[in-house]
């Protein structure tokens, strides 16, 4: 099974990981395409987004091979998860839980005084957390 985790600030990826790695270019395209859908959903929700701390957008769109899920933080950081369509074991609440884990780990990175916001993320702890999440799904 394939999966891709990514999150973006101002529509350029700060972190992207895919399994297997040979599909990484395809996942980059899928993530960038899904950002348009995220922006549409955010603008459609308008004021409701401002009133919430975080926003799980749910399934952004399905393709023949993948399901693309989205999540936005209160600081407008966008998380995108691409999961193999054949994985029917994942439920909506499990996807939401995975996004919360990503959000918490992202917050830990932001609290690091040596991290410059907007730089690509290079963190062993974050990589380990993402890899363990991806192995649970595969």
From TrEMBL:
| Any single GO CC term annotated in Swiss-Prot or TrEMBL for this entry | endoplasmic reticulum
What does the UniProt keyword field contain?
Cytoplasm, Endoplasmic reticulum, ER-Golgi transport, Golgi apparatus, Transport
Q: Which domain of life is it from?
A: Eukaryota
Q: Spell out the InterPro entries in the cross-references.
A: Longin-like_dom_sf, Sedlin, TRAPPC2L
Family as reported in the entry's similarity comment = Belongs to the TRAPP small subunits family. Sedlin subfamily.
The record's annotation in Gene3D superfamilies points to: 3.30.450.70
Biological processes, Gene Ontology terms: endoplasmic reticulum to Golgi vesicle-mediated transport
Location comes to: Cytoplasm, Perinuclear region; Endoplasmic reticulum; Golgi apparatus
Grouped into one coarse class, the protein's main location is cytoplasm
Kindly provide the name given to this protein in its UniProt entry. Answer: Trafficking protein particle complex subunit 2-like protein
Source organism phylogeny: Eukaryota, Metazoa, Chordata, Craniata, Vertebrata
């Amino acid at each position: 099974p394939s999966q891709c985790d990514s999150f973006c600030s101002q529509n350029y990826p700060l972190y992207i990981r895919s399994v297997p790695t040979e599909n990484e270019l395809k996942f980059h395209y899928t993530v960038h395409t899904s950002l348009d859908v995220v922006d549409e959903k955010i603008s459609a929700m308008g004021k409701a987004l401002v009133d919430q701390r975080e926003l799980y957008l749910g399934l952004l769109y399905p393709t023949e091979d993948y399901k693309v899920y989205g999540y936005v933080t209160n600081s407008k950081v966008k998380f995108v998860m691409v999961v193999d369509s054949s994985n029917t074991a994942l439920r909506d609440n499990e996807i939401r839980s995975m996004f919360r884990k990503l959000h918490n780990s992202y917050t830990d990175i932001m609290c690091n005084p040596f991290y410059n916001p907007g730089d690509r993320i290079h963190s062993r702890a974050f990589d380990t957390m993402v890899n363990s999440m991806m192995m649970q799904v595969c």
